[in-house]
Amino acid sequence: MKKITTFFFDKWWRPVLFYLLVTGLLILCHFKGGDIFNIFCNILFGLGLLILFGSLIYQIRKGRWLKSTLTFGILIIPASCIYFSSLILPYFDPYNGDQFANNLKIPTNIPIDEPIYLTIDKERPDSILSISKSHPDFQLYNSSQPGLYQYDIWVGKIPKGTIYLKAFEITHEHPLSVEYLPKHSSIIVVNITDSIQKFGTTSDFTIYEGDWGKPYAARFEVWYKPENGDAWRKLLSKNYIIEGWQR
Which of 42, 84, 196, 206 has the fewest CB atoms within 10 Å distance of its CB? Predict the structure, then answer.
């Protein structure tokens, strides 16, 4: 353990170099999206912070005041720049969102619905709670911010399994939030009766493509994965006007 500590901290430039590298990587991930890449960058940046902070404590305990002062400056300046850039950059082009929806047109020749807004407490409105369906249906809800959604699905008799969503921008068939959406929109369903029953999400899921104030048309497909291992199948689809969650 002592050898590891000496390797990382005795040469003060080693943790500094690592910290600067992961800081640069974190800045890069702000402009090149991807959920897994973002998570990876943030984990590395957190590790870099811990190592550099450990180096700062080590230099102070050794009485190396010049090196500890330099380490503190290097620790605080990039972190401050990243924090303030995250507040400022969204207000300036070309950093105003991901530009995904800038040139998209909403078709006028197909049925397209708008999501219903949840209440302030993120509950279904009374118009939904009192509704009774006689056929399978799907309803999308706007949650607390643009890009955050929930949904309900009405289905008839169905064995136990998992329902989840796929989504596509309509005009270019671009798949939306591919790595994220199936997992975070999943719900368990089972209906042994012949009547139509309602199932729905209890937490938000996110559509990342697009920006606030830039609506576009998306097709939501409801997929069903039986627990018994039978083939997955699409139950239904419906078109909605949505906005992406602006990061």
Answer: 84
64 and 22 in one domain? yes
In three-state secondary structure terms, 33 is coil
Residue type, 158: I
Closest-CA residue to 86 (of 30, 42, 138): 30
Task: Give the model confidence (pLDDT) of 84-101 as tens digits.
Answer: 555 555 555 444 567 888
**Does any domain span residue 223?**
yes
| Tokens, residue 125 | 């409105």
Task: Read off the pTM.
Answer: 0.62
Among 53, 54, 59, CA closest to 75: 53
Residues 9 and 120 in one domain: no
| Per-residue pLDDT tens digits for 50-63 | 777 777 787 788 77
Quote the number of domains for the chain.
2
Helix (H, G, I), strand (E, B) or coil at 158: strand
